[in-house]
Design brief:
The structure holds 3 protein chains of 3 kinds. Chain A contains 21 helices and 29 strands. Chain A is α+β, with helices and mostly antiparallel strands. In chain A, strand 16 and strand 17 form a beta hairpin. In chain A, helix 9 runs parallel beside helix 10. The longest helix of chain A has 28 residues. Chain B is built from 5 helices and 5 strands. Chain B is an alpha+beta fold. The relative contact order of chain C is 0.12. In chain C, helix 9 packs antiparallel against helix 10 and helix 10 crosses helix 11. Chain C is globular and about 60 Å long. Chain C is an alpha+beta fold. In chain C, the strands form 4 sheets. Chain C has a 5-stranded antiparallel beta sheet. The chains are: A alpha+beta, B alpha+beta, C alpha+beta. Chains in contact: A-B, A-C, B-C. At the B-C interface, strand 4 of B face helix 2 and helix 5 of C.
Chain lengths: 789, 159, 280
C-alpha cells in the first residue's frame, strides 16, 4: 500500500473518530432520543400472508386519536408507487396501512399511540381485524403457475421481464467441447442491521416545520418523499438520521412507517416514535436474495468460455419499493453474470416475480452474491468437466489489463485493474499448493474431506445517472454534495448529503480535507444525516459514499484552498502560486500564517484583505465525468473441511485479494472487507428466511434465524492491489459491498471440490449441513433423468 | 397498572424507581435513568447488545426484570471505568473492533468480565467466550484481537 | 416487544411462595427467566402473576452426601460450570452447563427452571434423565419427589401441578467405573441442540440417552440391545437404523443422532473423536 502524503491524508491509518462516543455509551441512536412529551407507537401487522381485509375495529375504550387505520390515514397520505421505465413494468402501490387486502405477513394494518411502547402494544392487542385468507403465492413455481394472483388486476405474477442477447450463443454451443446446464438457488435472507429501524416525528406549530427522525441511509430522499406523499411543500419538512446501528440496504428504501408517522404527527400535539422490534425487523424490513438461476455454459477444450445462457428468476415479494423497484435484483444480476470474463456470446432472460412475501429491497452486494454464485459455480463445474484447475480456468478467461477500459458483453465498462493477478495473489496468500497436498494426503477411509474454492467478481461502484436510468429507475441518482466552511478559529465544518452509519465517513471524509489542508482530522467536524444542515445528496448505498462524497469534499476543499491561498497571498504579500498549505498554515517563502489567524483576519476584518471576495465557505457538487462507474474487483479463496457423516462445514482458511483503487484509510477498508465477508459467510452457511408452503415465515427471531458469530468467521487474510480508477478523484473505487459478494461462490466451490469423488454438487444457499449431506445422498443414488434443482 | 418500586445501585450510585412490574432492567436503565448506552437489538436474549454487569456478572438486561434487581449492583457501559476498561476501549479502537457502535457496549462489558479473569485465551477460546454477542459490521476479527490484547495487557499490568 | 401486564411477587421464603402459588390464578414461577422472559417479551405467554423465587435464600443452598448432591432450585448454570457447587458426575455437569446458551445467560438461568421449561433440546432434561436425577417438589398439599424421567411429559409440559414448586434437584453420584460421553450437535455455539447424546459406559453395560429427538429425552433401548449384541465397532448405518426404531426419526435427523451417539460412545471410551470439539 502506498504511503500517505499527508499525516492525516489519503492513505493514512487514522484512528476512527466515531469510536470514543460508542465506547462510552454516548452514541445517540433513534431509540435514545429524548423528546418532551414523546409518545410511542406500535403497529398491528398482518399475520396472514394473503387475505381480504374487511374490517379493522379499534378497542371500544380506546381514546380518540390513539388508534389509526387506513381509513383515517388515507386523506393525509398517498400510498407510494415505485415506477420504472422498463417495458411492461407493472406498478404495485405500497399501502401505508393495508386497506382492502393484506399481501404479506408483517404488512402494517393499523397503529396505536400510547405513553409507552408496552401500553401501545396493549392497545394493538385489542384491535380486531377480519381477514378472509386467500391462497398464498410463496415460491417460484407458485408465482409462475399463478397459483393465485398477488395483484388481482394483473394477468400473472410478473413485475417485469427483461432479456437480451449479444453475439450468437447457439453458434458458441456448436463450437463448444463441453456444455453444461446447472440450476442454482440463493434463498431469501433478512438484512439484519443490529439496530432495528425506527421513526420519530414532530410537528412544530410555531415554526410550521415537520421534523422526522429516521434510521435511514437516505435522509434527503425520505424528505422528498414525505413531502410528496403528504402533499406538503418540501421546505416544511426536515429529516434527521441520528447515529445508526448499521443499514446494509435495509434502511435505504422509503417505508410506510416513515410516511405514516410523518402524516399522523402533523395532527398530534406531541412527538410520536416507533421503534421496530426484532420480529418486525424480520418481516417488515425489506428482505433480499431469493434468486433462482438456470445457467447453460459452453467452453472450448482449452478452457475458453464461449457462451452463456442465463435464465434468472427473482422472487421480489408483494410490492415494489421506492426507488429501487422489484426489478432491481434481476437487472443487476443479468448484467453481472458475465463477471470478470471475456465473454462474447451471452443471452439472458429475467423475470421478477410477485409473491406473498415481504417486499425485497437492497442488501449489501445487491444481486451480485447470487449472480456470482451462479457463474462461479458454473466456471468450476466447467473446469472440472475439462480437467482444468478451476483457478487456471479463471486466469484463462479474465479480462486483461491491456484490454482496459473493457466493455463487457452486458455493456458495463470495466475501468482498470489486473483481474488475473488477484487470482494468482490469493492462491499464494492461502498456500494453494500446500492445501492441495494436504487434500490428497487425506486417507480415503477418513470421514472428512478438504476442498479449495475460488470466487471472482467485478463490481460496479459509484456510477452516475445513466447507469440508474438504464435499470429503469425513476430517480437517477448520480451526484453528491459537500459544503466546507472554515470558521473564525481556522477549523473546518464539512457537511455532506450522504449518511455515515458505520462506514467511518466522519474519519475518512475529514482525511480528504486533511489531504488538501494538512490539518489534523480533529480540526474537521463532519456533519451528515440532517436535511437542514447538509446540502442535498442521495445517501449512502451502492458503495458510493467514499467516491462520490469524497469527490465532492475534495472539490469543495480545492476551491476553499484556492480562497485561503488568495487570502494568504494578500496577508503574506507573496504570489498565491508560490504558497503552500502545510501543517495547518499557509506557508510562503519567508513567512507563514496559521489558519486561525488567517481566518480571523479575513472574517473579522475583511478590510485587511482587500480584493478578496467575501465568504469562507464552498458548496461543491460532484458528478462523475465517466458515468459507468469504477469497478472494484476481487478474488476470494477459501479452504473448507467437510464432515462426510454430518455435512458440517468448517472454514480452515480464507483469503481475499481485492482492488478498490486508492485506499483512503487501510483500517476502514479492511473493516469493510471483513465485515462483508462475515455477511457473505452468513449467506453461504447460515442465514435463511424460511417460509412454509402457506406463506408463513418460519425464522422470524434470532432464536431461529442464525447470524454469524465470532466462531463462524475465521481470521481473514487480505491482499490489496491498488490500481487507481481513471474515473474518480484520487482513483478511489467503492469498497463497501465487495466482501459480501463472493463468499457463497467460493465456499460452494470449495465444498463441491471437497466432495468431487462423491459426485455431490452444491447448488443452494445456505449450504446447511442438512443440504450438504442431502447432496451427498442424492449423488449416491442411481441417476434419474433430469437436472438436480 | 401493577407497579413495583426497586432500589438498586447503578454505576455506584443508589437509585430508586417506581415502574410497571413488567419493566425489564434494560428499559429501567434506558427510560428511568437515561442510560441509553444499553442497547436493545432483539429482546430475545440472543444479540447481547444489552449486556450489563449485574453483581459483577454479565447478564442480558432484556431478559432480566427490573423488579428482580432489588438490592443489586448494576454497571453499564456509562459507568465502566478503571484500567481494564480503558485498556479495552483503547484496544477496541486500535484493532478496528467497532463500526456502527450498536453492539459495542455489550461487547465491551462481555470483554471486561473476561479481562478481569486474568486468563490467557487462545483465539478459539476467545471466539467461544464472545459467541454470545452479535456484531453485524466488523466480522469479529478486530473484536477478537482486541479481546485477546486487552486480556494480555491486563495480565502484564500485574506481573 | 414488551411483556403484557402482570403482577410481580417476590417471596422471601418457600412457604410464602407456596401460599402465593396456591391462591393466585394464572401464576407462573420466575427463576432466572432466561427461557421465560423471551416468551413474555414476545407475548407468547401472558401470565397474570409472576412469582420470583430468586429472592429465597433457602433455594440457593446445596447439600452433598455419599449418595449425591442436592441443588437448590435457583442454582445457576454458571455455579455448576465454575465448580461453585460440587459435581457428583465427574465432570459431566460442568461440561453440560458450559454448553448452555451464552455466559450471560448461564449467569442467570437456573437448573430447576430449565427442567420446568421442559425442552428436550436443552441440556438439563437429557443430562439429568440420563443420571436419573429427581426433583423435590412442594405445595401446600405436601412434598413429593419426582424422578426427572417422570417429570418431563412433553414439550413445555411437566408433571408439576399448578400449585407446585420445584425446591431442589437431586443428582445421584455417578457410579464408580462408569464413564460418560456427551455430544451436543448444534449449528452454532450456544444454540439449542439438533442432537444431544449422553452415553454411560459401565463394564458390561452401555446406557444411551438422546435429547432433541422427541419431545422428551429418550433412552435408546433398541440401540443399546444392538450394541450389546455386536462385537467390535458398529457401522453407522446400523446404529442409525436402531436409533430410528428408538425415536421414530428418519433421514438427516436420524443420521445426525447416529453420529452424535457414536461420538458420545467414543468419548466415553476415551477414544479420540474428530469433530467432537466443534460440537461439544
Amino acid at each position: 500500500m502506498r504511503s500517505a502524503h499527508r499525516r492525516h491524508g489519503i492513505g493514512a491509518r487514522v484512528p476512527r473518530r466515531e469510536d470514543a462516543r460508542h465506547l462510552s455509551g454516548n452514541g445517540s441512536f433513534l431509540a435514545d432520543l429524548r423528546l418532551p412529551g414523546l409518545r410511542e407507537v406500535a403497529f398491528l401487522r398482518s399475520e396472514v400472508p394473503h387475505g381480504r381485509l374487511s374490517a379493522v375495529r379499534p378497542p371500544a375504550d380506546a381514546e380518540p386519536g390513539s388508534v389509526w387505520t387506513a381509513t383515517e390515514l388515507a386523506p393525509l397520505a398517498q400510498p407510494l408507487t415505485a415506477t420504472s421505465t422498463l417495458d411492461g413494468f407493472r406498478e404495485a402501490p405500497l399501502p401505508n396501512l393495508a386497506m382492502d387486502k393484506v399481501r404479506y405477513v408483517g404488512e402494517p394494518i393499523a397503529l396505536a399511540i400510547a405513553p409507552s411502547r408496552a401500553e401501545a402494544e396493549d392497545l394493538v392487542a385489542g384491535i380486531a381485524v377480519d381477514i378472509e385468507p386467500l391462497t398464498a403465492v410463496v415460491d417460484f413455481s407458485d408465482a409462475l403457475e399463478a397459483k393465485a394472483l398477488v395483484h388481482e388486476d394483473w394477468p400473472d405474477n410478473v413485475f417485469a421481464t427483461t432479456g437480451g442477447a449479444v453475439g450468437d450463443v447457439d453458434a458458441a454451443a456448436r463450437a463448444a467441447a463441453v456444455s453444461i446446464t446447472r440450476e442454482y438457488t440463493m434463498h431469501r435472507q433478512a438484512v439484519v442491521p443490529l439496530e432495528p429501524r425506527g421513526v420519530a416525528a414532530h410537528y412544530d406549530r410555531s415554526a410550521d416545520q415537520l421534523t422526522v427522525w429516521s434510521s435511514t441511509q437516505t435522509p434527503h430522499m425520505i424528505r422528498d418523499m414525505i413531502a410528496l406523499q403528504l402533499g406538503i411543500e418540501g421546505r416544511r419538512v426536515r429529516v434527521i438520521a441520528p447515529d445508526m446501528g448499521g443499514g446494509f440496504g435495509a434502511k435505504c428504501s422509503v417505508y410506510p412507517e416513515e410516511i405514516t408517522l410523518a402524516a399522523i404527527a402533523m395532527r398530534c400535539e406531541y412527538p410520536i416514535r416507533w421503534i421496530e422490534d426484532r420480529w418486525e425487523g424480520m418481516v417488515a424490513s425489506t428482505q433480499a436474495r431469493d434468486h433462482h438461476y438456470r445457467i447453460t455454459a459452453h467452453a472450448a477444450a482449452d478452457g475458453e468460455l464461449l457462451g452463456v445462457d442465463a435464465e434468472i428468476l427473482v422472487n421480489s415479494g408483494a410490492y415494489s419499493v421506492h426507488p429501487w423497484t422489484a426489478t432491481m435484483d434481476a437487472t443487476m444480476s443479468s448484467a453481472m453474470i458475465p463477471g470478470p470474463y471475456r465473454l462474447a456470446d451471452y443471452r439472458f432472460r429475467t423475470r421478477s416475480l410477485a409473491s406473498n412475501k415481504t417486499p425485497s429491497g437492497p442488501y449489501r452486494g445487491v444481486a451480485r452474491p447470487g449472480a456470482c454464485f451462479a457463474i462461479e459455480r458454473t466456471i468450476d463445474d466447467l473446469a472440472h468437466e475439462l480437467g482444468i484447475e478451476p483457478k487456471d480456468m479463471r486466469l484463462r478467461n479474465m479480462v486483461a489489463p491491456a484490454q482496459m477500459p473493457y466493455r463487457s458483453v452486458a455493456g458495463k465498462v470495466y475501468d482498470s485493474g489486473d483481474y488475473a493477478e488477484a487470482v494468482r495473489r490469493v492462491a499464494e496468500l492461502i498456500g494453494h499448493e500446500q492445501w492441495r497436498e494436504r487434500q490428497l494426503a487425506i486417507p480415503r477411509a477418513a470421514r472428512h474431506r478438504i476442498g479449495i474454492g475460488y470466487g471472482s467478481f467485478t463490481e460496479q461502484t459509484a456510477h452516475g445517472c445513466i447507469e440508474w436510468a438504464s435499470r429503469g429507475l425513476a430517480i437517477t441518482i448520480g451526484t453528491e454534495s459537500a459544503r466546507l466552511a472554515m470558521d473564525s478559529t481556522g477549523t473546518f465544518t464539512l457537511a455532506v448529503g450522504i449518511k455515515s452509519h458505520g462506514q467511518s465517513s466522519e474519519t475518512t471524509l475529514a482525511q480528504v480535507v486533511s489531504e488538501v489542508f494538512d490539518v489534523d482530522v480533529e480540526r474537521v467536524t463532519v456533519v451528515h444525516g440532517d436535511t437542514d444542515r447538509t446540502p442535498r445528496g442521495d445517501g449512502t448505498f451502492a458503495s458510493r459514499s467514499m467516491v462520490m462524497a469524497g469527490g465532492a469534499t475534495f472539490g469543495a476543499a480545492r476551491r476553499l484552498a484556492d480562497k485561503v491561498l488568495e487570502i494568504g497571498s494578500v496577508l503574506l504579500g507573496e504570489p498565491a502560486g508560490e504558497l503552500e498549505l502545510r501543517d495547518g498554515a499557509v506557508h510562503g517563502r519567508t513567512n507563514s500564517i496559521g489558519f486561525a489567524r488567517l481566518a480571523k483576519e479575513f472574517l473579522f476584518t475583511p478590510d485587511h484583505v482587500p480584493g478578496v471576495a467575501p465568504g469562507l465557505e464552498v458548496t461543491h457538487y460532484y458528478r462523475p465525468e465517466v458515468q459507468t462507474g469504477a469497478f472494484t474487483y476481487a478474488t476470494h479463496a477459501v479452504v473448507v473441511d467437510v464432515d462426510l457423516d454430518t455435512g458440517d462445514v468448517r472454514l480452515l482458511d480464507y483469503g481475499i485479494v481485492e482492488d478498490c483503487g486508492t485506499v483512503v484509510n487501510p483500517q476502514v477498508v479492511d473493516g469493510q472487507i471483513i465485515g462483508g465477508i462475515a455477511q457473505g459467510i452468513g449467506t453461504a452457511l447460515l442465514e435463511e428466511l424460511e417460509y412454509d408452503p402457506e406463506g408463513q415465515p418460519k425464522s422470524t427471531s434470532f432464536l431461529d434465524y442464525l447470524l454469524p458469530g465470532a466462531c463462524e468467521v475465521p481470521e481473514i487474510k487480505i491482499g490489496h492491489l491498488e490500481t487507481p480508477s481513471p474515473n474518480t478523484v484520487f482513483g478511489m473505487k467503492g469498497a463497501g459491498e465487495g466482501g459480501a459478494i463472493a463468499p457463497p461462490a467460493a465456499i460452494g466451490n470449495a465444498i463441491t471440490d471437497a466432495l468431487r469423488e462423491t459426485g455431490a454438487s452444491i447448488s443452494e444457499t445456505p449450504m446447511t449441513p442438512r443440504r450438504v449431506w442431502a447432496s451427498m445422498q442424492a449423488a449416491a443414488e442411481p441417476r434419474t433423468v433430469g437436472v438436480a434443482g | 397498572m401493577s407497579e413495583i418500586t426497586v432500589e438498586l445501585t447503578v454505576n455506584r450510585r443508589a437509585r430508586t424507581a417506581t415502574v410497571p412490574a413488567r419493566t425489564t432492567l434494560a428499559d429501567l436503565l434506558r427510560d428511568s435513568f437515561g442510560l441509553t448506552g444499553t442497547h436493545l437489538g432483539c429482546e430475545q436474549g440472543v444479540c447481547g447488545a444489552c449486556t450489563v454487569l449485574l453483581d459483577e456478572l454479565p447478564v442480558r438486561a432484556c431478559l432480566t426484570l427490573a423488579a428482580s434487581c432489588q438490592g443489586s449492583e448494576v454497571v453499564t457501559i456509562e459507568g465502566l471505568d478503571g484500567p481494564d476498561a480503558e485498556r479495552i476501549r483503547a484496544a477496541f479502537s486500535r484493532e478496528g473492533a467497532l463500526q456502527c457502535g450498536f453492539c459495542t457496549p455489550g461487547m465491551v462489558l462481555s470483554c471486561y468480565e473476561l479481562a478481569r479473569r486474568r486468563q490467557v485465551l487462545t483465539r478459539d477460546e476467545a471466539c467461544m467466550a464472545m459467541s454470545g454477542n452479535i456484531c453485524r459490521c466488523t466480522g469479529y476479527n478486530g473484536i477478537i484481537r482486541a479481546v485477546r490484547s486487552a486480556i494480555a495487557e491486563g495480565i502484564e499490568s500485574e506481573s | 416487544m414488551k411483556p403484557a401486564e402482570f403482577a410481580y411477587h417476590r417471596p422471601d421464603s418457600v412457604e410464602e411462595a407456596l401460599g402465593l402459588l396456591g391462591e393466585l390464578e394464572e401464576a407462573k414461577v420466575l427463576g432466572g427467566g432466561q427461557s421465560l422472559l423471551p416468551i413474555l417479551n414476545m407475548r407468547l405467554a401472558a401470565p397474570a402473576h409472576l412469582i420470583d423465587i430468586t429472592g429465597i435464600r433457602a433455594l440457593r443452598r446445596f447439600e452433598e452426601d455419599d449418595s449425591g448432591v442436592r441443588y437448590g432450585a435457583v442454582t445457576t448454570h454458571m455455579m455448576i460450570e465454575d465448580g461453585l457447587v460440587p459435581d457428583p458426575a465427574r465432570g459431566l455437569l460442568p461440561h453440560a452447563a458450559a454448553g448452555i446458551g451464552y455466559r450471560a445467560v448461564r449467569n442467570r438461568g437456573t437448573i430447576a427452571g430449565s427442567l420446568a421449561h421442559s425442552d428436550s433440546s436443552a441440556e438439563w432434561p437429557t443430562v439429568l434423565s440420563a443420571l436419573d436425577a429427581a426433583v423435590h417438589v412442594r405445595s401446600n398439599r405436601g412434598d413429593r419427589r419426582i424422578p426427572v424421567r417422570e417429570l418431563l411429559l412433553g414439550f413445555f409440559t411437566t408433571a408439576l401441578a399448578e400449585d407446585e414448586l420445584i425446591t431442589a434437584v437431586e443428582v445421584p453420584r455417578l457410579r464408580e467405573g462408569t464413564r460418560w460421553g456427551m455430544v451436543k450437535m448444534a449449528r452454532k455455539p450456544g444454540e439449542f441442540a439438533e442432537s444431544l447424546a449422553i452415553t454411560l459406559v459401565r463394564p458390561g453395560e452401555t446406557e444411551i440417552w438422546l435429547g432433541a429427538a422427541r419431545d422428551v429425552p429418550v433412552r435408546l433401548a433398541e440401540t443399546e440391545t444392538v450394541l450389546a449384541g455386536s462385537i467390535g465397532p458398529i457401522a453407522l448405518e446400523q446404529l442409525a437404523e436402531a436409533i430410528g426404531a428408538d425415536t421414530g426419526s428418519s433421514g438427516y435427523e436420524r443420521q445426525r443422532h447416529a453420529v452424535a451417539v457414536r461420538r458420545a460412545l467414543e468419548t466415553a471410551r476415551g477414544e479420540t473423536v474428530r469433530g467432537a470439539e466443534v460440537h461439544v
